[in-house]
Amino acid sequence: MKKQENEFPRESSPSFFGESSNCSSLSGSLNKTALHNSRHSFSGRSSQSIPGIRSGYNVVKCFGFPLPVVVNEALTSVGSAAGTVSAKVAQNGLAWVVHGRRLLIWQYKESSKDAKNPTREGGFPQCRELQLPYSDLGYNSELISVFQTDGQQMASCIAVSATGDVRYWPSIAHDGNTVNLPILTGQDFVQIINLPLQEGYLAVTSTCTLVFLSVGLTNGRYSLHHKTIKPATSLLGGFGSDKDPLLVGMCCERNSPESETVVTVLSDRSIQRWSLPSKGNTEHLLHENEEVVLRIREEFKKMFWNLGTPADNVEIELHLLDFHIVDDKAYILAGAVNAAHAPQMCYAVAVASVQANSILLESFTPLKLNKFYNAKTKEDCFSLRFIIGSSHIYLYTPKVVYPLLLANAVPTAEIEAEKIEFHLHDDRILCAAVCSRLPLFFSRTHGLVSITPGDFDANELHNMSTCNTPDLFKPAMLGSFSAPDQSELTAVTGSRNNLHMFELDPDELYSDRRDKVGQLKAAFVYHLKRNNSMVKTIIGELLRTVNEPDQCSAPLDAYKLDRIVITIAEDLAEDLPIADPCWEEALGDHDGNRHALGSSRSMQIINQLRDKTLAFDHFVSFLHASGVWEKLNAIPCGSNVLKPTSFILSDISEKIVAAIALRSLQAKQPKIIEHAIDATVAMWDEKPNGNLTTQDIFYVKLCKFQFVFKALAEMADNQISAQGDTTVMVAQFLNDTNSIVLDTLGQVFKHREQQANHFTPLNDRLVACENLPWTAMSGSAGVRDTLNRLIDLSLRYGSQCISETELSQKLYQQIYELVDLVLEGRKSYLDSVRGSEKANLLQRQFEVQRRELISVLIKDLKYEYAAKLAEKYLDFHGLVLICDVTNDKERLDDYMRKYEEFDFSQFAIRWYLRQKRHGEVFERFKDNPVALAQFMRDHPSLIWIQLIFNGDYEQAAKVLD
């Protein structure tokens, strides 16, 4: 482990009584057939009980007693020390959290050895708080041990700082009763384990130096003693070489019949096994093995990059990430990077058998997992860890758990696994452990969480005649442990639990709803059930009836099918969450939700929104597959605008994405966003009833989502008008507001680009229709007016009013991005109306606003931002002005070459003449005689200026005569 590069807390194997914490019985290694007990667990779906953690095929439950209030406060702290929170779970029923210099200790389960799978109880356990001594490098939960010996009523604790300051508490009930000892100043301590047989503790540094700590009791007073353990001097290489090794991990293997404890230390170069006697000072090194690490390196080369011969002189960057020993087998998680091939880290699990005098590599299993690797992502690449249960190995990062099946057979292929995500924004896994054969994960949001495999037998899959989950068991889906495709599997399986539409009975829907909207909904549900015959029948009948006049002799509605599709899409986006108790009263008054397609069973708003996205994607796919899409038209939208229905559907989809983005930002800017949501709901004249909040209402009324941007701009205006804040405070508020708007719309534009093909009209006539997305609309239907307002406020009351350089620079960057959004929207709309009557008027409007917005940046000396915009949107006036005020003739020449097809040189010459700077024309353009000659041909009355510039005064006089 390289502590400087990876601060993610490591879960070590040893318990606090010298035994392996992974005490489960297992043999053999990993198996590719991870399907049998974990991949297909239908029972696991119904057992999912924790908001924000999705699993399709494993049982996820809260475990143990509730977290003490003080621990919850520490975990949710947003102070300066919030990022340094670490946690540890011990087999003895105790857990602790380190928060700055605070050490919080509590009992998370019954201490009796006969306790069976404790569940959450109502009462909160007592928490003990200890004060850690001051340390420059702080503390980590791995450097703390809390234990309770036989006959001891209260647990004891020992803590070591990274810099080697040791503190011992004989009883955690008395914070003031401590013994302190500094050891090995200048070292970087990483881990400590308890050695009950030796009545002491073993600490290890990042360079694999071992220090034995013991506690003495003389005349009722405790004292601390330490001893550095050194390898035999005859050993060459290994840990004794000139270049210090870097620690990966330390494991306490077992206690021998001779009352000796065997400890194994893994570094980036070798494995050492030490024997520590229960009495005396005769600890000795059993053996050291460098071959295993070398073999792992060679296996990476061969398995991932097919490098196996001496001629393949390619060096890879190897990182050993985690290490556990269970039942005489060493499990090593490793990652490697072949920079010559690609900047990505590949992962594998190596299994070695631990014998009396040797360690032999038994298997090497590549994982179908890789991550992009560079200086910025290095910490994330190194964050992968694992624990070993009785039937599975659980790989995990701070946000994801991958359960992999263990079996006797040595694997011969890559591993596949489900991906269990801890979705909530602030949630992350602080540590993991196996206690009483149960895998436990310490979640920052939920506390202790257990993950166990479900009981579905994969063999039953072959006996199933139908499966209502679309494409769930397709091989392409199952093989996606790596890369982005895995998120699709998680989304499908997770939302299969939550989406009400998968539970709808299409026959009941078809008979209950005889209106055309109900019929199209029924066809959609039949499509989900893969009853293509009924889909074809209903769609055929629907297309026939929408093209017939109404019985009451009303004129034929050419847009009837479009209105039906849009109605379903809007309903889907705004369907109420069916299982959220907050909406119980509203659901009782809303019979239509019985057949709601976008209704989610999740009680978390973010998951409800994600479920709507998935439901909407299924609906669009159905429209394509059923042939309805090609029948869609363009409908009137506002005055003199025909907008293709496909573009309207795109707008609805984007508003759901925008809602997800805003909800994800809410933890960063809770005050501003919550106030904006309150103001938005007030604009709608909506009031929450019962248990509902304004946020519940806001995140359901998604078709009017754009109003939140108006609310944000009005909040900024009110902040300025109040005059109660300083200039810097106002500028900071504008910066925060702009950040929310830009981040939210950034996700919208990303989604629009990715999904462009899904919302393209198939009718060539519709492709030529106007395309004015909601982000470019003015008025209450769009956000363009809000963007213009934020640009104005940010300039007048932000960037131009403060002297703080960093904040001013942030604001100008945001102004640049806001201007880009405004101009991009207007230009896209202008491109869609080329050749129409309104094109000339819109072109003039675009040019006027383009010049106004870019000129402001030039006036404020932000030439690079202005130049980027002027180049992108062909504002030649701005480009010439920038070159002139910066006296950059070289840049002007570059523009003349770059925009030659647009006659940029002629525009530049005319610009100088309009400025009445005739004499400069020939000086500026003397190196471009072609452009100058062309201009003179077009303006012969000005030839006298060139003659004077050339010194031909006589001829100039004749021209002037």
TrEMBL record:
Composition bias, Basic and acidic residues: 1-10
Biased composition (Low complexity): 11-21
Molecular function terms from GO: structural constituent of nuclear pore
Family stated for the protein in its record: Belongs to the nucleoporin Nup133 family.
Organism: Drosophila pseudoobscura pseudoobscura (Fruit fly)
Keyword list, A-Z: Nucleus, Transport
Domain Nucleoporin Nup133/Nup155-like N-terminal: from-to ranges: 58-405
Swiss-Prot/TrEMBL GO biological process terms: poly(A)+ mRNA export from nucleus; protein import into nucleus; transcription-dependent tethering of RNA polymerase II gene DNA at nuclear periphery
Source superkingdom: Eukaryota
Subcellular location: Nucleus
Location, primary (coarse class): nucleus
Protein name: Nuclear pore complex protein Nup133-like
Segments for region (Disordered): 1-21
Entry GO CC: nuclear pore outer ring
